Amino acid sequence: MTQITEIPAKNSLQSLRDALEQAERQVVRLDRNNIKTFLVGLDRIEQMVTEYGQNKSAIRAEETRWNSLRNRTSANPGLVATAAANAGGLDKLRSQHPPALGSWWHLDSVVSGRRTQALKRSGLAIGVVVVVALVLWGVRAFFPSANALTDTTTAIEQLVTAQKWPEALATVEKARQTQPDEAELLVWEAVLNEQVGDAAQAQSTLAQAQQTFVGQPAAFWTLVGNHRQQVGNLDGAEAAGQQALATAPQDAQVTFLLGSVAEARGDMVQAADYFSQTIALAGDTNPELGIITKMRMGNLMPRVEALPNPEPAQTITQTTKP
Fold it and tell me: How far apart are CA 157 and CA 79, in angstroms?
């Protein structure tokens, strides 16, 4: 791949900083009025970062901010999908801004997959995955308890994005008064207690949450890892991911989590290795995850190729099912 070696002008760097600042302000509170500007802004930031080619040392701080923004959207897909749904849906926005290749344009697929799994756990399995807009509005219309959980989760994620740990924890505790055994809320309470330093309460709540995943240890630890990554606890997220991997080495959601953690840490080679495994494992069983991972890989590979003599990451041995 041809790399751009000429360092862009200083005013280009200021434009990148301005675009990052605007996106960072918007991501805290996305809504129907700013979602389009936010998504287009991410496209612009990606283009400006790419223009630096191998000269990434000139924008080290800016690239860190850019990675943080991307991780926020992938770890909190509901923030983007909900705001987009109120503006006509991501499908409509994609058609207005082709080619819309960035992973942030396709987070509706991630939300759809997660909600389908949540409904299955609640005994409300959906037989057919329908168009994302129908899923979003259908859940709201016919499953008010799921609607309440979605609204609560969105509120929690917004507070987490703003790093308002006590406020987020208070929101979880209030929601648990009406949904005391909801797994999502239990895991959030445990992770947020970890953030505020209440290790004993976190451990107790985590044990309670684990009881709701009888026979599904990988699903439990993956959820814990995802929430820990959302609050920025990368060590805890990796530990949870490794717990999940030990019980389900063939689970695409697990390798995707570990790839996301590696990417957040700046270990692009290891992230690419995990994402490659995710694509292979997702196959036809989880096409939404496969699509998202391919997009993440597309964004990741230019940075891997720009590394000086990158060494291949250690490949994790997958156990072949009999």
Answer: 7
CATH number (1.25.40.10, 3.30.2130.10, 2.30.30.700, 3.30.420.150) of 215-322 reads 1.25.40.10
* Ranges of each domain in the chain: 215-322
Q: How many CB atoms lie within 10 A of CB 61?
A: 10
At residue 139, what is the residue type?
V
Q: What is the pLDDT of residues 89-123, one digit of tens each?
A: 888 888 888 888 888 888 877 776 665 555 455 44
C-alpha span between 24 and 306 (Å, rounded): 26
153-181: average pLDDT? 89
Task: Please give the model's pTM, rounded to 2 decimal places.
Answer: 0.56
- Cα angle, residue 30 at apex, residues 186 and 122 outer, rounded to 5°: 30
> pLDDT tens digits for 233-281?
999 999 999 999 999 999 999 999 999 999 888 888 898 899 999 999 9
DSSP readout, 25-80?
Answer: HHHHT--TTTHHHHHHHHHHHHHHHHTTTT-GGGGHHHHHHHHHHHHHHHH-HHHH
Q: Do residues 273 and 237 touch, judged by C-beta distance below 8 A?
A: no
Q: Which residues of 292-303 are buried (b: 16+ CB within 10 A; e: fewer)?
A: bbebbbebbebb
Alpha-carbon 51 to chain mean position:
25
Residue found under tokens 């530990």: 239
pLDDT given for residue 308 in this prediction: 66
